[in-house]
Structure formats: C-alpha cells, structure tokens
Amino acid sequence: MKVETVKVYGEGAVGVESTSLDVGSDEVLVQVTRGGICGSDIHYYQHGGVGDFKLQHPMTLGHEVIGRVAETGQAVAINPSLPCGECSYCEAGHSNQCVDMQFFGSAMRNPHVNGGFSQYLSVKHSQIVPYDESISHDVMAFAEPLAVAIHAISQSGGVLGKKVLVTGCGPIGCLIIAACRAAGAIEVVGSDVSDRCRDIAAEMGADSSFSPIEGAPELYSQAKGYFDVSFEASGAIQAFHSCIDFTRAKGSLVLVGMRPGMVDFPLTKCLAKEINMSGSFRFTSEFKTAVKWLEAGKVKPLPLLTKVFPYQDIVEALKLAEDKNSAMKVQLSF
Fold it and tell me: How far apart are CA 136 and CA 298, in angstroms?
C-alpha cells in the first residue's frame, strides 16, 4: 500500500513523501493518529544528524506516536523500541541497552530505522499497547516521553518520601517533575533560566523553582546539600555542577539531558560526597507504565502541549518546535 510519510533529507530539508508499506505476517497494521516532535527530530532537521549519527539517506522522522489498529479500530500507543530479545542485555531485562536495537527515527543503524510520522505503520505485536479510547490523542501522545521520565525515576532508586531537584524544565524535565510527584516525592523543585518553563513546571507539580542566573537559595548548598535526588535534564554544564552542589552526601544524581562533548567534571566533590550517579537512557517496561498512568490521570501532561499541526505542515511545526521561547511540545495530527 502507498502511504504518506514525513521524511528528512538532510540539514534543513524535510517534506512529505509517498512511499510503499508492506505488512509482514507477524506484524500489525496501525493507522497513526498523533505524533509528538522530539528534540532528536529537531536535530535531524537542523543539523542532518544527532551527535555522531549523521543521515546517510532520507529517513522518516518521529518516535512519539499513537494510533489505531487498522483491522479492529483499537486505540494503541506504539512503543518505538524493537530490541532483539536475545542479547545479554535483553535477557537481563535491560532491553534499552540492546546491542541490536531498532528504534524509530534513528540514524544509528545504516540503513536507518524509519520513524513513525506516517499515515500507517507496520509494527510487531509486542510494540502496541492498547488504551482506553476515551483518552484524548493530546494526552496519550505523551506516552513515550513520560516513559523516559519514569525510567529516570527507576534509575534513581525511587523518590518516595524524598526531596527532589530537576534542572532543566523542558518537556522531559517537566514530565520528571510530574512523575516524581505521582511517585510520592515530598518536595519537588525545578530550575530553569526561562520564566515560562518555570511557570509550566509549577503547573506540572513543582512546589517551587528558581533561576540559576539569579541564584538558588543558600539552603540548597548548606550541610553538604539539600536534595535526596537530583535529575539533570538540561545538558548544561552549569546545571550539572549545581546538581553536585545541591545533592546531599550519599544522595543520587541521574543524568537525563544530552549534549555532545566532554564536560568539566567535579570528580573530587562527587567522590567525597559519595553521590550515587547514574545515566538514564530511554526506557524498558516503563512504556506500559506510562500508558497506564496517562489512562488513570496520574500524570496530566496538557500544560506542555503548545500546538497541534496537520502532518502536511511539518516545516511550520518544526520551526515552532525549535523555538524554545515559544514552544514546549508540538504534535502532528495524522
């Protein structure tokens, strides 16, 4: 069958293209209804790649997608991860570290893995998670980024009864704030240079917030730190340093934000405070958890939604999404 897909061709080049779609005997055909634009989609559009992974040929964008099973009409969230299920990481339950991962809209492999910004997708049965069709597309399209946030909490060892700092209040940072609140944190504080982002962080559940430019309350750096758990979601070096300063001795720091290149690492301070530091990359079983939380209203993501565009208006949608002064999360309607 012929379907229209949103393709990126290189730096600054994107468009809608008609392509052929085949459905395998072990696959299910899904009609896509909504897709969220992620930072990686923006990077492929702006720079023709993400970090070391450059486009070698045109690729369909998108990995935050939901839809309906074409045969039955069942509403489903679509997990963009397809791990091999056979490597040592998959067998140990760490499928996000799969050595042969196929992830929607990624140039990590060559040929690249096409993404989900398409009228229809052919996916494995294991990739679809049914959900209550009464939940709006606006809400359920947040399943994938919410899964990232929940996985970050898993990496921290849990936040129940703990004081939490989140640096970087973009979409992922704000979803971490909401997920921490849902997971039982007793205090959640956000940090961002943007007044608008801090205001949205408050709507998502932050008790308070501060601008790193204006400075944090002295309390946060006294007695070897204030927060039990810190999540660094901005990728900024200064934010990383503040997390080291504000996380209490024996506390946990989870690195979520990505930025290419090396950072100035305060190794001695981190060592002396015995901070437990870990990275957080994508998700595993948390995708199903995210769908359930959104179904139950445990996390309410709509303060993050800036605008929904028809997929044919992909250029306009990407230009708004890359304007961090105006947009938080932009979605495409299919």
Answer: 15
The whole-angstrom separation of Cα 240 and Cα 234 is: 9
Question: Which overall architecture, per CATH, does domain 2-142+301-333 show?
Answer: Alpha-Beta Complex (3.90)
The percent of residues above 90 in pLDDT, for the chain, comes to: 95
The DSSP annotation for 51-118 comes to TTEE-SS-EE---EEEEEETTT--EEEE--EE--S-SHHHHTT-GGG-TT-EETTB-SSSSPBP-S-B
Per-residue pLDDT of 171-222, as tens digits, reads 999 999 999 999 999 999 999 999 999 999 999 999 999 999 999 999 999 9
What residue spans of the chain are helical by DSSP H?
A: 39-47, 88-91, 137-140, 143-156, 171-182, 195-203, 237-246, 267-272, 286-296, 314-321
Q: Is the Cβ–Cβ distance between 155 and 283 less than 8 Å?
A: no
Is the pLDDT at 262 greater than 70, yes or no?
A: no
Domain-wise residue ranges, the chain:
2-142+301-333, 149-279
Contacts from 161-164 at CB under 8 Å and sequence distance 24+? 161/185, 161/186, 162/186, 162/227, 162/228, 162/229, 163/187, 163/189, 163/226, 163/227, 163/228, 163/229, 164/188, 164/189, 164/227, 164/228, 164/229, 164/230, 164/231
CB neighbours of residue 269 within 10 Å: 13
- pLDDT at residue 261 above 80? no
CATH number for the domain running over 149-279: 3.40.50.720
